[in-house]
Structures are given as C-alpha cells and as structure tokens.
Design goal:
11 helices; mainly alpha; transmembrane helix; transmembrane; about 0% strand; GPCR_Rhodpsn_7TM; globular; G-protein coupled receptors family 1 profile domain-containing protein
Length: about 325
C-alpha cells in the first residue's frame, strides 16, 4: 500500500507532458490551418473538383478538421498554456463539449461512410448514373449524417435532463453529464466511435481483397476498362492513406475506453488515456490535411501553377520598377 501511495501521484499530468503537447500543437496549428484552408477552398470553388463525387466525403472530413482546428485546437492550446478553462462558465463548457463531441463523432461517421462509398463507387458504379440515384445514394447520406449528429449531440448535451458538474481544470470541463447515463453513453460510444472504427478497418481490408481479385479480371479486358481501374486504384489509395492515419491515432483511445466494460483499467491505462490518448483526436485533425494533400494531386498542381504565375509576375515587375527608378535618377 505504501508503494502504491507513492507511485500513483506520479501517474498524472505534469508540466513536462503539458509542455510537450503544447509545443506539438502550436507548431502544427499554423501550417495545418493553411493546408486545410487551401484544400477546402479548391474542393468547393473549383468546378471540376466540386463535381467529382468521390471527393465529397473527403471534403466533409476536411471541413470537420478545419472547424476543429479553428475552434477546438486554439482552446486546447490555451488550456495547456494556463492549465484552466477560461472563461469558467457553464455555457462556455457546454458549447465546448458540444463542439468537441459533435466534431469527433462527425469525423468517425464520415470516414465510415467514405469507406462504404468507395465500395459503391468501384464495384457498383451504376448507382450513380442518374441525378436521382446520385441524390439518394450520395448526397442524402452525407446530409443525413450531418443532421443526425447535430440533433443527437444538441439533445444529449443541452436538452437531456442531468446534473452538470463542470471541472474547469480539465479539458472541455470534463465529461458531459449525459455520459453518466449508461444507455446514452454506451450508444454514443459504440455508434459514433467504436463501431465506425471497427467497420472502417474491415471495409478497407475487404476493399483491398476485392480489388486484388478484380485486378485479375481487368488485366484481360479492354483498354478503357484498364484506364477506369487505374482511377479506382487512385481512389483506394486516397482512402487507405487517410484511414491508416485515423486508425493509428484512434485505436488506442477506443480500446482503452472499451476495457472498463469488461475489467478494471490499470493505473497505467488511466494515465495513458488521460495524458496522451485523449489528445489524439486534436492531433489527428492537425495531421489529416497533410495526408489529404498528398491524396489530391489536382489541388497540388493548381497550387504549384498559382505559385509559378505569382513568381513569374514578381520577376517581371521587379525589373520594370528598377528600370523606372534608374531612369528617374
């Protein structure tokens, strides 16, 4: 007992661990915001990219990341810097909890839908041949996911009757009070976190297996179908790259949350969850734009072309200004 009493206080947040997270977040935030904003801008305002269906789920993920990086990450950086939530008011905590849980759930469910839709795009492309089918099988699911999650978390955090007990020394003021209800808490965990992660991994594995089988058939088919398959292969690569980063950062958090349902979580598990794994969602939204820009060569090309034109313009303007100054002298 004496050994436990001296060891347990060590397993907690320290100034050193807080400074590490603060340094990582503050270093990643500016470039992540720039990269994220560029991607969202081109996917929305470029006509070709805007009408490319398989980019819409990626756009939804990037919008979630952008909102998180604009709203959530600055707040967590501020919290890590001063070690308290400001302003220490109930409404501030409620808004932060709503934003955090809504954005976290949205990222999980949108990525699950992206994995499902990749199967449909590649192996059931006939579902998108008409405007009506595109609405029912593409646009409606995206809209339904967004509306459902907004309504669920507004109801759970603002409407569900429970006793709020905010802790201003914890990120997002602790857990929302609805998590004290086993039914709602378990539904939220499995529907918006655990199940999307498991299904996403299984769907990605299934996509690779189906693709390997399909490749043998495509080799013996016409050239047009081979070209089409190259397009599908690119879509698969985009999804697998995003899902790989997501799985690496989400599996530890989800597994440590799952363990207490079956057994007692060890002090080390509690420590890792509270000090490190809890922050992986914000880290994920900071890293995901960099992964996505590697999956979107069209955007990279447009940014390079824009930068090249800007460089040429400046190189033309500088000699003109220099010549004018010399002539005046």
């Amino acid at each position: 007992m004496s050994n436990n009493s001296t060891e347990l206080p060590v397993l907690g947040e320290t100034q050193w661990t807080r400074n590490i997270k603060f340094g990582i977040f503050i270093a990643l935030e500016p470039p992540a915001l720039i990269c994220n904003t560029i991607l969202v801008y081109y996917l929305i305002f470029n006509r070709t990219l805007r009408y490319t269906l398989h980019y819409h789920a990626v756009l939804a993920l990037l919008i979630v990341c952008l909102l998180t990086n604009l709203i959530e990450v600055p707040r967590i950086i501020h919290y890590l810097h001063i070690d308290i939530v400001l302003p220490p008011t109930n409404i501030n905590c409620l808004i932060w909890q709503l934003c955090d849980y809504l954005l976290f759930g949205s990222l999980n469910v949108f990525l699950l839908w992206a994995s499902i839709e990749r199967h449909l795009f590649i192996f059931h492309s006939n579902l998108y041949t008409t405007a009506k089918r595109r609405f029912y099988f593409h646009y409606l699911p995206l809209i339904s996911i967004a509306v459902y999650l907004i309504l669920f978390y507004i109801g759970a955090i603002f409407i569900y009757p429970c006793d709020t007990n905010f802790d201003f020394t914890q990120p997002i003021c602790g857990y929302p009070c609805y998590t004290a209800s086993p039914n709602i808490s378990l539904y939220d965990y499995f529907a918006h976190s655990c199940v999307p992660l498991i299904l996403d991994i299984l769907l990605d594995i299934g996509l690779v297996i189906r693709a390997m089988r399909h490749k043998r058939i495509v080799v013996n088919q016409q050239r047009e179908q081979v070209v089409q398959w190259r397009k599908y292969r690119k879509m698969m690569f985009q999804l697998l790259l995003i899902s790989s980063l997501y799985s690496v950062l989400q599996i530890p958090f989800v597994v440590v949350q799952l363990i207490p349902l079956f057994t007692i979580l060890s002090p080390l598990g509690v420590y890792l969850q509270a000090v490190y794994f809890y922050y992986f969602f914000w880290l994920l939204t900071l890293l995901l734009p960099f992964v996505c820009i590697g999956c979107l060569p069209e955007v990279v090309k447009k940014v390079k072309d824009l930068f090249t034109r800007w460089t040429r313009r400046n190189t033309m303007i500088v000699p003109i200004i220099t010549n004018r100054l010399q002539s005046r002298q």
